[in-house]
Amino acid sequence: MTTNTATPRRLLRREARATRRGPAIALAVVMTLVLVLLLVGVVAWILDDGFRRQAAAWFAPVAAVVQTPPALIAFGVVLLLLALLLVALVVLPGRRARRTRLDTRAALVIDDGVLADAIADGVARRIGVPRGQVSVTVARRAALIRVTPTSGVPVDAAAAEEAAAQVLDEVGFRLSPRVQVAREGVIA
Hints:
Strand content: 15-25%
Helix content: 55-70%
Number of strands: 7
Strand order of the largest sheet: 5-6-7
Oligomer: single chain
Number of helices: 7
Order of helices and strands: HEHHHHEEEHEEHE
Radius of gyration: 28 Å
Shape: elongated
Largest sheet: 3 strands, mixed
Structural class: alpha+beta
């Protein structure tokens, strides 16, 4: 790879982030529908006297509630929270279940499931437990390793944690391993 790492870094970032196109389009469609309904309502209010009387009858209970300040404050807070949630959903970047690493020779993108399988294989091999009795969940900063020992054969949690740390060190990702050994084993 060249000494210029800006392009590979940008590509890795793009591969690790999820697009926010879906929520943005959904928000735009909902806002468009609301604005069109408001426009139709205003035009009908201006042009049709019967619609004006019927709308006044519909909104009479709402007008009574709106007269109380606590109801107005609660309604405003709910609308503000909804607006902040929608804006955050559209603007903030999403995260895919992938890890990236830039080396001097290659840019690497690894799915969290593949990393979890590699950790489980390595831990099972190093502590002498069948692969089916080790499960791994990879979170943002940690790897949770669950080991179910064979009945009557104890498993040392410290050895399993050390094995997980070695595997993570070999693959080059900085995750803190957390090992849980089940109290009861399975019959082999």
